[in-house]
Amino acid sequence: MSGARGTLRIYLGAAPGVGKTFAMLGEGHRRAERGTDVVVGFVETHGRPHTAEAIADLEVIPRRIINYRGSDFTEMDVDAILARHPKVALVDELAHTNVPGSRNEKRWQDVEELLTSGIIVLSTVNIQHLESLNDVVEKITGVPQRETIPDSVVRAADQVDVVDLSPEALRRRMAHGNIYGPDKVDAALGHYFRIGNLTALRELALLWVADKVDDALQHYRHEHQIAETWETRERVLVALTGGPEGETLIRRAARIAARSGADLLALHVAPSDGLTGANPAMLAAQRLLVESLGGTYHQVVGDDISATLIAFAHAENVTQLVLGASRRSRLGALLNGAGIGSNTTRMSGDLDVHTVMHDQAGRRHTGPSMPRGLTRRRRLAGAALGAVLLPLLTIVLANTRSSFNLSSDLLGYLVGVVAVALVGGLYSAVATAVVSSLLINYYFTPPLYKWTIAEHNNIVAIVAFVIVATTVSLVVELAARRTSQAARASAESETLATLAGSVLRGQTGVPALLEQVRETFQLTSVALLEREVTAAGTEQGWTVVASVGTEPCQTPADADTEVPVGERFALAARGRPMAASDLRILGAFAAQAVTAVEQQRLTAAAEAARPLEEADRMRTALLNAVSHDLRTPLASAKAAVTGLRSTDVAWTDTERAELLATADESLDRLHRLVDNLLDMSRIQAGALSIRRQPVALHETVPIALDSLGPAARDIELDIPDDLPEVETDPALLERVIANLAANALRYSPAGIPPRVSASTHADSVELRIADRGPGIPESHRERMFTPFQRLGDTDNTTGVGLGLALSRGLMEALGHELTPEETPGGGLTMVLAMKISAAVDDDGLAPSVEPRMSPAVRRQ
Hints:
The chain is α/β, with parallel strands linked by helices and 860 residues long. It has a six-stranded parallel β-sheet with strand order 3-2-6-7-1-8, with helices on both faces. Helix 22 crosses helix 25 (803-813).
């Protein structure tokens, strides 16, 4: 056997008949003509002569015969192919489900064995068999697909070739008899192979393959470290700050993406130090909005937001970038230099940058993302301002010495120091104050141009100047620090408020909490660990309760930051050491995560106990029913039989007939009660046997009503003969209809019989059984489906209260719905909603169904 894994080539088609098998066989012939060892592992011709001719002289591996339920089926013989070990094997219908008793459940699993052994496989699959598109195809065509294949299997193929054919050409091929026999052509063209269906399936196939090609392109760019954008497909990236303008930007970006059929991506860049500084609640809401619009949300770490945006855009092959106009005021822009929008535009290169105006543009942002202290840029700006301002002040004041005295000079320099303090903070201002005092001493205090001071008043003035300048600088620096602390406190409060809100709304799943921790603090991974304790109380190792991120910690020792919670739990974070100021909020997350774990365990314990509690309640109710309701008809039958056997009384023929009728009626009621009890137990045990088939209601309803005897003759029927058939078990449906009709008869007033009608609604058929009885209040309608419940009815001769419970249980087991409604004018209507039969084969053709005999025919 070859040590190298074989390659997989798949021919993908939008519908049966496009030529997938023909293309696969053609490739097999080409390889065989080049001298390659090619065999046919399995090819299904579907009776198409051209496909059979295409096999020609290719070697065919005989199929394996499998007997299943008394019938013989043929499947691909995997063992024979492995023993033959060709270079290339042709395997048709990759999504096929093998007959029970085969080597594997699915044919793609057989193919996986061939690939592992080093055999090259050519195969085929239709787009409707892909798992991710199964429900979409059913909505388009109305045909459910019973055979599916995981998308990952097809995506992992080394090559996927689309066998494309226009809908018109495919329908011509169908009309010429090249796909199905003449007896099936009309049905196929009018059902599955309609122009609209084929067009939609074709588009699905092309889009799916386009996604696979895009994945391959991204992989190639990554392997070859290609950073520049290749505009093979439009991608729109919207940058989010977590501010209130995010929703406007997302919707604008979505419109831009929709106009060009582009992918939508959203990115939030968080700083690497501490909290993200964004509003977590807003980010969460914006993330949901992006995903609801069909986009994807991303969050990365980066201190240089512009550079991070551009790097991400290049990595994802983004072609258009959407930014919001700056929220900073003109003064803020002057103090802090060019904004993110300007820097990003300057660095964008071949990216198209859209700057979107919004209501928050130009407004000072007061949220938690305010600056954390003076930046390095501001400190350098303060030093530069001092270096420029002091020489200018000195020149101006020296040239106007005759007009101003020393006090005026000191005030001028003080204004300069305050200006430097406002821009650059403490250190720049103190340095400016010291240099200013020296300049005042040298240029403005006698003796001039010397580093000495003759008058003591001037010494006091200069010292006071330095003190005032330093004090002002300290106030500015303190204000900046308080701003930083306030920003952090605001971020913490926003995060805790979001956490508290999610607790109140019940959205505190452990993985969601850990993911919020990871995103909030920009960590690589977060894990909740629990210490194992034996029954004897001995502590053992640690287990991971839940984790998010890559390479989660297995023990607290592996973590960069550990937060113990009680004696048994610990939150282990990896990515960077956490600052002490972060531990308080991290501890709140950890405590909530432990609480969520304990709540989940309590809920699980309660759920585990609920079936036992329900079983105990059912057992008690059943004993009560057996002790009374079942005993009543049994006693009546026993009394009648005993009387008949008695030799002490000479019964007349009329009296004897009445006793026999009483015994027969009591035993019939007893039989129905026992059947209901047995069926209810089967439903609860999941052991109910169901045999679905297409059923016509105009035939089934009369059969069900016949079982109720003479009382059902007065029921009004309105069942159109042209109603679509429904997919159900006819015997079980008859039981449901009989139970509901009997219930309607029981509560219908004299002279006003129940009414049974049916009609279509969307893709369902609704059967309505209406009575004019007292009805049931809406608040009690669900209670009436509880077993052994008659809503206060004290007539214990009418049964054990299982009829409605059994009816709903049977309907749910059949995949239908049973809902109560108020009858217009008073009374109760039971609505049975059943899906229209969609019994079709894999190619979309409905099989012929032998009609059931009508009641009239059965009576004959």
